[in-house]
Design brief:
This protein is of the alpha/beta class. The protein folds into 2 domains: 148 residues, 3-Layer(aba) Sandwich (Rossmann fold), CATH 3.40.50.720; 270 residues, Dihydrodipicolinate Reductase, domain 2 (2-Layer Sandwich). Helix content is 36%, strand content 23%. It contains 14 helices and 18 strands. α7 runs antiparallel to α14, α11 packs across α12 and α11 crosses α14. The longest helix is centred in the middle third of the chain and has 19 residues. The chain is globular, with a radius of gyration of 24 Å. The chain binds 6-O-phosphono-beta-D-glucopyranose. 6-O-phosphono-beta-D-glucopyranose binds next to α11.
């Protein structure tokens, strides 16, 4: 794979080249790939944004952004990496910007005497997607090189639409302009090692195979709880809220991996079809319980509209009426400005009632709990009941730790490294299909409608969320 990569020069164009995503995620991820030898040996990164910068000013900007992230690499290595960057000033709606991008790519082709493959990364707010898609199409910026295995691809960040109707319209446009194998819809959760572990756990371990269903699993609680507040993302966040920000995508993808039917894990198409099948089981269903809340003080965040009723926390519980999952209650809970940071799926198995009923008349329900923690650390544990030492037959719960990231020799790649690497190597497994996007919105849109009818609770920043009497 790497040998093949090294052969093919690649041009990476970042729309939003001076934005937050580029600074905090994309530059560091590209640097890590560069240092690990996982980028093509000849590549150029072209940043596009409105600021007026020269190539060398942009390279300094990239270097400074990297320094702020505190990555520990030798200065000469970072400098060499930054020398691959070029800059184009322009706006997304101006067709001449696209001509300048093409020109910058062409110049690079001339320098190396070979035509590059092209990757266009839309690291921009979603309102710019359509105009960028259209201009990329009309300017023919995705024109392929003459070589048979050349490619041109688009990386698109979420949120993809803001409800079912807008997502369908966007999807229609995208598919009319580009081929499906050119479109890489990002959900960076799919690119997390810890989350991919769900597939390993479920499909490689025989002992779980027969118990992975609603007859054995009582509940699945997916949590994405953050201590961070909305911070400097006020205007972005206020327009979408927590359900759209993480529920429509990250949490539903965790749900899909946990409940999808078995599939050939080495076949990208099969995996995407299986995830879509899992999402289809949710349609048309409305959760039995919905709670939404906002942390106190949110309204004073820069960019947030006065009196905003955007949620910064939600919790929904629902069941799935399929033969496999009948009986299990699923809960999603997510929020900002909470008392602790955790991202996990807690899978609780049905209880066994085993008691010494003469001595202990109230039966104790013994449940096994499988806890898959994805962040802040990757960790999997299962609670098991064992006999406590002694004459009496009394039980105690002990934790069996399956995976801990501490001490691993090979670190997990950062999600954005995986996103970029997979796009360059043409692996769509960890990207969302158009069908998945649509199914996710089919489930989420009625909940958003329902939100309008429901009270918006308040909670204290740094607490466990709303207290509902
Ligand atoms: C992003 C959301 O998609 O995911 C953020 O826009 C959220 O609001 C983030 O904080 C969580 O991702 P991670 O990788 O930090 O768990």
């Amino acid at each position: 794979m790497l040998h093949e990569l090294a052969m093919r020069p690649t041009g990476i164009v970042i729309f939003g080249g001076t934005g937050d995503l580029a600074k905090t995620k994309l530059f560091p991820a590209l640097l890590n790939l560069f240092v690990a030898g996982q980028l093509p040996s000849r590549f150029v990164v072209i940043g596009l944004s409105r600021k007026e910068l020269t190539n060398s000013e942009y390279q300094t900007f990239v270097e400074e952004s990297i320094a702020q992230k505190g990555q520990q690499y030798e200065k000469s290595m970072v400098r060499e990496f930054c020398s691959h960057f070029r800059y184009v000033a322009g706006s997304f709606g101006d067709e001449t910007s696209y001509e300048r991008i093409k020109e910058a790519l062409h110049q690079y082709d001339e320098t190396i005497g070979q035509c590059t493959n092209k990757l266009f990364y839309l690291a921009v707010p979603p309102e710019y997607y359509e105009v960028i898609f259209e201009h990329l199409h009309t300017s023919n910026a995705l024109a392929l090189c003459d070589e048979a295995d050349s490619w041109a691809r688009l990386l698109v960040e979420k949120p993809f639409g803001r409800d079912l109707t807008t997502a369908q319209a966007l999807e229609e446009k995208l598919c009319a302009l580009f081929a499906d194998n050119q479109i890489y819809r990002i959900d960076h959760y799919l690119a997390k090692d810890a989350i991919e572990n769900i597939i390993a756990l479920r499909f490689v371990n025989t002992i779980l195979a027969d118990s992975w269903n609603g007859q054995t699993i009582e509940s699945v609680h997916i949590k994405l709880l953050e201590t961070k507040d909305v911070s400097n993302r006020g205007s972005f966040y206020d327009a979408i809220g927590t359900l759209r920000d993480v529920g429509q995508n990250h949490m539903l993808q965790i749900f899909a991996l946990l409940t999808m039917p078995p599939a050939d894990i080495h076949d990208p198409q099969a995996i995407r079809i299986a995830r879509a099948a899992a999402l289809r089981t949710l349609v048309p269903r409305l959760p039995e319980q919905i709670t939404r809340a906002q942390y106190q003080g949110y309204g004073t965040t820069t960019g947030v509209t006065e009196g905003s009723d955007t949620e910064t926390y939600f919790k929904i519980s629902f069941t799935v009426d399929t033969a496999m999952w009948k009986g299990t209650t699923f809960t999603f809970e997510a929020g900002k400005a909470l008392d602790h940071h955790t991202n996990e799926a807690v899978i609780t198995f049905l209880p066994r009632n085993l008691c010494n009923c003469a001595a202990e008349p109230t039966p104790h329900e013994h449940r096994n709990v499988l806890r898959m923690q994805f962040a802040p650390e990757q960790r999997m544990s299962v609670s098991m009941w064992t006999k406590a030492p002694g004459f009496a037959f009394s039980l105690r719960e002990q934790e069996l730790v399956l995976v801990a990231s501490d001490g691993e020799e090979t670190a997990s790649p950062e999600a954005y490294e995986r996103v970029l690497f997979d796009c360059i190597t043409g692996d769509q497994t960890r990207f969302v299909s158009g069908e998945e996007v649509e199914l996710a919105w089919q489930f989420i849109t009625p909940i958003l409608e329902q939100f309008k009818e429901l009270p918006l609770y308040e909670y204290v920043p740094g607490s466990t969320g709303p207290v509902i009497e």
